[in-house]
Structures
1.
Amino acid sequence: MTRPSALSAGPLRPLLGARMPTVATAVLLVATVAASAVLQDGFFTPYGLTSNFAAVLPVAIVTVGQVIVVLGGGIDLSIGTIVTLSSVVTVQLVAGQPDRLPLALGAGLLVGVGCGLVNGLAVAVVRLQPIVATFASSFVFAGLALLILPTPGGEVPSLVTLGYRQVIARAIPVPAVLLLLLWLAWRAVLAHRFGRHVYAVGGNEGAAYASAVPVTAVRLLSYVAGGTFAALAGFALLANSGSGDPFLGNSLTLTSIAALVIGGTRLSGGAGGAGGAIVGAVVLVLIQSLVFFARVPTTARELVTGAIIIVAIALAGLLTARGRGAGP
Amino acid sequence: MGWTALFGRPAKRTTWRSGAAALAGLALFAVGACSSPSPSGGGGDEGQDTFTIGVSNGFVGSEWRTQMLDDVRTVFDTYKQQGVVDELVVESADVDVNGQIQQIRNLINTGVDAIIVNPNSPTALNAVFTEAKQKGILVVATDQAVQSQDVTNVVIDQGEWARRSAEWLAEQLEAGDSVGVVNGVDGHPANEARWAAARQALEDGQVKIETVTNGDWDQATGQQVTSNMLASHPDLDGIWTQDGMALGVFQAVKGAGKLDDLVLTGEARVGFMRQWADQRQQGDFETIGVVNPPGVAGSALHIAVRMLQDKQLKSEVVSDGNTVYVPIPDVVTNENFDELWAEVQDEPDAYALDGTISAREADTYFR
């Protein structure tokens, strides 16, 4: 399977075609972890590790969902609101009682699948533009979340919030284990025929169709997978916060896109992967904490965070654009 | 294979540029590391007498919050001169709930003794508040009360705040007159508390509540919905509104040429008071502005410092198990307008009239 040379045409081509080189992603990871270890007292203590992994996990899960959609040539601007909608359904159903967890989690997961299905039908079957279709559906999902949980509230069983903060064998936080499971889930997707089809469709839809790849079904399924991961991210957020909020995950949409670009996934689809995206999520969350621990003045923090992220992403654009120019 | 699997597909080839990028990335962080002061020595615990205070603010889009942080710094500086506190660590950024959880965890990791938080959610920070308490850190919520019993709330009584202006409006009108209402955001805890109290006051004053709408605590939206309200209810006798929209309501009524026909409630912010001053010069315009003080966060710091010194709050100042209500500093009416306006007229339009309890007043809250 070679990387297709034909990209979607248009003025955005150089930008969308850019892809973070693997080495650059790895270097960013090493640099942010090293800087955190220096600047953040107690970074490697059990509490330090747990608090960082607890913050990374929801971002990482939603990014993996976005990666699957983007690899298939789409984009999901509603993914953060799916996180919110699933989480408010779950928190309303669980009502603080551990024995209702299976029901509540199942319902939350179904909501994620359902939202993904709506997006998938709009994009793959009705053939609306992904940006417009999912931007519109984001308002539907956000509005539903407000109807279901009009004011912040609801209680997650303490079993869940305490379990999320556990440290196994004094060094391995539970969220880190879950992050590993997330990566294994991605490997399972990749091992399946669906995983290879997603790359094919995102890379070159026409060629994929000519090779008997069921393009419509694959695109539809990529959105369903995105919605499913969004629901899982909602569960992680609930475990982290302990209560529901009708605006809980909405801002994760843009975070997920930034993380996947840092992680080396090409925005025009067909190249990249969830491993890098998880690293991208780690880098992004660490950068935000680093700015704090580096004692950057409050007023300058947003500026510095933004500048670091732009520099990180610009590395990708510069390197790939030149690399391709030199190629055949 | 493992490398490839972890990072997706391999880059076509690794060139010197990747290496350069790597160096650039490292350099960037090295610069960041060198130029910053040493992070150690932040914690003031372990029996020392000086305390480190953390502040977590999750919304920076309003002048009110900027003023709030300035007020905290002012109070902090007085305690610093007395040698009671040593460092103020401020976390202030536009964040979602997850981001504010991380803000608070960062403060916990820094080793602060107390955290003053203006919470983005009354419930969704419960778990991290419990973490802070387990680490022996005092958490005081301000502006917005939270449910967690691990936290002490220092807030103004939003119901009382709304009741003052609603009672005033009912007094200006006659029994049976009808009013329109421009509220903030449905479902927001402060909005619900304010509206419950204001509705009661209006009903007690035998005023008819004709129509209720939401202006999202935004002047422009407030102006728009008021224009619509005036068009669809031409017979209104008054409008009750909340903080942050009174200027918009005023502009809409003025635009419709109905300033003489309607009684409006106002707000204690400079932009509104400027219009108020103009109208007073032209005629007998009358309104009311109840102060919603950003300095409530400074009051929270006064309370927090005493709690860190192991003083006990009097049981009669604590409501609902964990809430301390500080008084509303001022109510602006025509009677005291000139005096208050002289103090603030050089401030920017977004400036809110302010007030913080004094150290001596804070002492009276404790045994």
2.
Amino acid sequence: MTASGQPISQYDTSMPRVVSGAVLLVVALLVMLSIDVSWVAETFGFQKRVDARVPTFFIRMVFLIAVLAGAFISFTSLSYYKRNRVMLAPWLFLSIGLAFFLIYVIIPIFQSISYSFTKWNGLYDVTGTWTGEWVGFYNYRLLLEDPNFYTSLANNLLWLILFMLAIPIGLGIALFLNQTVTGIRIYKSMFFFPFVISQVVVGLIFSWAYNPEFGLLSEIWGWFFCEQKLNIVGNLTTSCSIDPPSILGEAKYATYGIIAAGLWPQIAYCMILYLTGLNNVSPDQVEAGRLDGAKGWKMLRHVILPQLRPATFIAIVVTVIGALRSFDMIATMTQGGPFGSTNVLAYYMFDQAVGEGVGRYGYGSSIATVLFFIMLIYISYFLWRMYQDEKTEH
Amino acid sequence: MVFIDPDIGSTFSLFEESGFFNWEENLMYKSLIRATTAVSAAALLATSAWASDLVVTYDDLNPAPKKAFETVIEAFKKANPDINVTTNITDREAHKSAIRNALLNDAPDVITWYPGNRMGPFVDAGLFMDISDLWGSDPNLSDKFNAIKATMTRDGKQWGVPYSFYQWGVYYRKDIFDKLSLSEPKTWADMLGACDKMTAAGVTPFTIGTKYLWTAAGVFDYLNLRTNGYEVHNDLTAGKIKYTDPRIRATFAKWGELLERCAPIKNHATMSWQDAIAPFAKGDAAMYVMGNFSVAAYKDAGLKDEQIDFFQFPEITPGLARAEEAPADAFFIPAKAKNVENAKKFMAFIATPKIQGDWNKAIGQLPPNSAAEVNKDDKFIVEGMQTLSTASGLAQFYDRDAPAAMAKAGMEGFQKFMLDPSTLEEVLTNLDKVQAEVY
């Protein structure tokens, strides 16, 4: 009962809770803003301000949580919220995730696009002023004339096309492994193994295998074309009638070499997708097909593959994503070399902006923007397809 | 604002370094003692000046340089017992990106960085402190650093103090040279002749690993310094000369000759400079254009002192004043340093002949202070000192003299040219384009 004698509806605003929530919010916010590194250093007796930074961060986080809790209490005590609970509750839960997505993904995208219109070396001067200058579309004009940009773009395309090989090869291996033989699980896990290894390790293994001096490939090459000889100081050395190919050292082979290395784990990934898909192939339909006289290629083409459509769809998606994530392989195997011939857009952007102090943040951002729009086209198409599929299903 | 020293001032040590795991102990016992001492210390704090801190950031974690640096810090502490020195030693590659943040937020008082054009962006953004006054007043800096002063200068002011530098040149297998009865080539013709003999004997003249590009820049720099001299090197890296200039073309023409008659090892594009030591150590290759830091690596690869030797890159244009590559490592004071007086004391301290001599003996390099003693037992150091002290000019290195964006494109071009000399035109016109845009 309220003072006026009317019964409390469950949809009424409860003022005490709103006020206490608001007080908590304001107090915590003030405390959070007033805490700074020097205060923490002084209070907890840190000798260096640097050491106080991490504790400051956590203390601020605690108060940030209090701010959010205050806001939550106030908001959920409003009659407006109580009446629209079903509609508002999901957004309340989503809000934190959305806020982080906004701060760490959406805002940086726009920042990056805005940097692409500037010439900036990534530095702020001593007063904290930004040192860049606005240059309009200058960076994009440069891009159009930059042979390295076209090399990167072509390589991106090459990656996308050749990486698709992972799908049929993965399917082939999956069909081959989809049988009941003793120890098949061991074989399956061995085929799956490369996917478990980190990309960096795969890159290292392949760059060693390709090494023309001591690599596996040159070793095999040596059986056919090379012989051991004594050199001038009496050490054994190898001399070859035809030199072993230097795969990562020659511009015309290097990208293919890296793609081959990247395919290794990607095939394993596609294989595992198809293996799970094959588990769900209905035996009735296979039986029915068999009765109708289908076997071999016809069985695969008309009975099995249509049932694997969801697996194929996912395999294409992850392979496209894998092809665009070629960054780690390139970074470990060639660093974009020889002379920039294995760059892809992502690596070239990194190289120009932050690599080895080159510091062309504006130019790097313009590359990032181009990459972003290329991805956007693909992702929009992908989402549109998903949407269409869902529409037809319902 | 007064900072309370943690040893006497802390009443709550949850976040202290060791405090997290035994915080209970800290809280229960130490805090009591600390709280009481804090009161008495507060009186002291109010009167005494607590400016005596010094934070130094150094960027080499390799055992020998790290130990040498720590020895210097100990010596500085001994000389200045009232200064409380803190050091941060970081990884060299990580330092290259970390410094950007360090100079803006929580700057140390002294930090390592590279002179020449590499310090340019930080100087231009006002992040390094101008220490011309120190160069003017300090007895060592004003008098004994003339050879390297130009390198530390930008806009007519000095920005740092070098603690070490080293020579570049040709390291060669003396035993192979003896076997082929070759002597150290003095001229370009000598060099090409020696190469022919080596090739005939089945020895690859040069080893090099260009995977990380900069080694190719060493060769280019020397060819350019010997063909055109110091001024052209500086003008090129400063963007005043085009790459299609006839003088630069002449340099590339010499490089073409070198690639033809003094062919480097195959597969250099897949090798780092360390990988390229293997054929040198094995005796498949006889010469290596490198910096003096590589000597330790030759010895690690099993070569003995008498098997290796050093000669200055031979003369190409007769009568041209000889300039050398001599990259230096230096300390700088960030503009945001808090203890500037102590930082300057430290700078003056590391410029003294004693420290410069001892430090460089420990790391096997050369002291920039001309009055400092060098290690007479190391033939490479003796020869290096002789080479550099008689040089008419000291270049830093292509990738330190040229802005980073230009250097990156330039070195990629050098590698491309080395792999296929027929791409010369394409390389030079592309470099002109990059140059027009970078400067």
3.
Amino acid sequence: MENKRTCLYDKHVALGALISPFGGFDMPIQYTNIVDEHNAVRQACGIFDVSHMGEVLVTGEESEAFVNYIFTNDITDAPDGKIFYGMMCHETGGVVDDLLVYRMGENRYFLVINASNIDKDVAWITEQAKNFDVVVENQSEKYGEVAVQGPKTEEIVERVLGIHCSDLLFYTCKEVEYNGETIIISRTGYTGEDGFELYGSHAFTNEMWDKLVGSGEVKPCGLGCRDTLRFEVGLPLYGDELTDEITPLEAGLGMFAKLDKEFIGRDALAAQKAEGLKRKIVGIELKDKAIPRHGYEVEADGKVIGTVTTGYNSISTGKSVCMAMVDIEYSKLDTEVAVRIRKKVFPGVVTKKRFYDKNYKK
Amino acid sequence: MSTILEGLYYAESHEYVKVEGEFGYVGITDYAQHELGNVVYVDMPEVDDEVTAGENFGAVESVKAASDLISPVSGTVVEVNEALNDNPELVNSDPYANWIIKVQLSDPAEVENLMDAAAYKAAIGE
């Protein structure tokens, strides 16, 4: 099947980006190189085309009850403009997808889902909605999205775009009238840095890209550094740290699963918590610079005790680190483990899975 | 355009060997380092290890991927480029000055199976 293209595809080609398939789209992996793009976001400002992300609008009388029923976090009585991170789970507790829920207004919720899961999620959400008075609309084709990330972002968005954003708190959003259309801006991101995400028409998305990149102050950044940035601050990627078979508790995301309310998968998670986890995702720091990558085996006591979910030589710290799903008895901090990389076994220790501190403006 | 030096021998898997007497200096080409992107680790054999033409002897890791190193020649490793342990990015900045292993060639005639500069240039479509 032919990959889809975002509304910014031609810009990526014109910039000479390396293009690769991701989540059913042909996406820019890098424009110059991953290290420079990564550092631009940590130190200044970068822009990502994230138009591949899916958007689902839930409206109707029972919207709040419905979203709360399919979502692990608790959105009860949320004020307009509030954003929640959480997951949708199967009855088994495995994760359908992780997502953001935007409370846009009364009976109006905007769900932002992963590109690779759009078809699966929309089918699943629609199925769950049968017994609720709600309307579920897949608006993924309608919206383009850019993420503008880095410590200088707020000032640049205000000055270059003329969009007032300094009033937005972390994990809040608002609708803004811009050239006759209503766009959404939120103080969110996937890099561990301060920043904003802007949702609007394809024309709006192109205008944002042109203005920001054209200013010379905002570096085009590809999915390559999006992954290294999110990884360093311990954020999960669906497909690596979260799957249909991994629960939020195993992924270390229990704080986003509110077991004191009803939602699909809640009973399985409560039971898992009561029994105790058998495995969980940890950080591992290697002593050498060899890179532990997705799928590599983790060993201890002469046997395989886990699998790497994501690993890199961290650009911000220079250390070779990974997140890995390991048997629970090897999950304590400072436990000595090793990762098999090609023919050799490289020793390391269990660490926190945040390898670099987040720098959010709250 | 990639830099391709005259007088070196090139493999389809983008390693080169520069022959000096009974020794060969093996590294990756400028084209290969560019395709890989930022090199962050070079997995090298040890001195006295045997390498065989066409077989794996290590790997070059960039941020995004690991790429196997295939030896273009056979022989014994007499030296590895220790500088790459601390500064693997040297492979990006000058891949020909920064060879990876020095091999005592067991069969110097093997290089006849490799490409010369013109043939390699054609092979990578430049």
4.
Amino acid sequence: MNIFLHELRAYRKSTIIWTISLMVLVLFFMALFPSFTKDAEQVNELLKTLPEALRKAVGIEIGSFTSILGFYSYVFMYITLCGAIQAMMIGASILSKEVREKTVDFLLTKPVSRSTVIVSKLSAAFVSIAITSLFFVLWAYFIALYVRTDDFNEQAFFLLSFTLFFVQVMFLAIGVIASMLLPKLKSVLSISLGVVFAFFFIGMFGSTVGEASVRYITPFKYFDSMYIIKNSQYEWSYLIVGLMWVITALVASFFIYTKRDMDAV
Amino acid sequence: MNVIESNQLTKVYGKARGISNVTFSVREGEIFGFIGPNGAGKSTTIRTLLALIYPTSGSATIFGKDCIKHAPEIKKEIGYLPSEVFYYDNMKVIDLLKYSASFYKKDCTKRMKELADALNLDLSKKIDDLSLGNKKKVGIVQGLLHEPKLIILDEPTSGLDPLMQQKFFELLKEENKKGATILFSSHILSEVQKLCDRVAIIKEGEIVKVETMSALTENSYKKFRLETINEVSPDFFKLEGVTDITRKEKTLSFIYKGNINTIITKIAEIPLKNLWVEEPTLEEIFMHYYEKEE
């Protein structure tokens, strides 16, 4: 428990900054919504002039763009991008920073097992991103209530919004396993940005060519916003595959961490 | 009772470094020195005992329990101070120490304050702002605050000024008197000489010798230095027990181990100007071990 609290405190500042950034970002985008709906006709006309490939890549669907859920889902794509960076950075640093900052000798000569260490640290990382997601979703909901022009499907809204957390969990797991497979990891920021943007662009590319199998590759495409808005539910096959990836990555990390030699600095 | 028992402990790191078949034991209540130059395998042995790295073969027990299997339990009673201390930079000293104390299921506040006072450590500072010596003090306090039964020190004196070093040794002796066993690794022989009851000499990953400090320094070894009237060939003293013969013009010196009468008879054969017989320093004995092996 003490490790968990220590880690939570260590990530407090960055969690607050990320949460506030996401909140500001969604506020900024959603504030534009009223002006979009006012000129709905013109907006749709304008969007039609964009090449179809581009529209697909950035996730714009004509018609849906002027409804609050459609507009929100477009904005939300960039929110998950940022959330993914946050989660990947926590995941990649939570175990490796002790090695990099050489505090691992301190921690691992205390009367705790390595499994306690890794479980406590992962729990702290989960709680940090859960806090971010929770604050974001509630905030986004209030904004939506404020800027809406019509009633909207609140269940779909929440389902869509909480995919932030699921995408974050996947990137957290990717970050953790990356730091285990690359023990000499020097810069968490560069690898996090690199991996997250790579997946993001794979997702864009997949949408453009309409290749369904790409959806299993990138966490950004596990949750199709249009599907969620239409059906008010998740696509279970993706949710299960995603969960399996997360569990596999975390279990593998667990074994690597508990068996690893902590060499002298 | 033996507090530490290392049995054929081996760690293989590809081709270089590592330790092989390290066997020694540390008795309850003693201060055990572990000496050897840098890279000889002192840290590797200690890190294996602490389960920071896992042995390739062999095993070790601490308090009678396997040091890998029962690591978390054993560590309740171990205090460890590494040669280079690194702590969470953005924490205050007091917070770091409280975090450290939170791992032990007892109240360490009083002892923490005592130690900090004894070492003149300012608890309200940020670790980031501390000098190397002061960081070291944080290390000492966090290693001792839970009054461990076994204190493991890996080249602990680097970065401490002589005065603090003195203070630190006093603290260690105090803990030892209260019953703590100490494993002290160092490449500085004089500090081992000051503190330890027994020493293990380690070289290229293997234990060369385990001996009591008194056996190492007293009786058995003598350092002879003689100034002769005529030049004498070093070969003159080539006999059983004589090592490290060096000659500087008319001054000959060597280390002798054996029956004192034999050597005195030999010396009596040549005319002398002057003669010194001294206890060799540990340093000289140590070099002697190292050269003999080569």
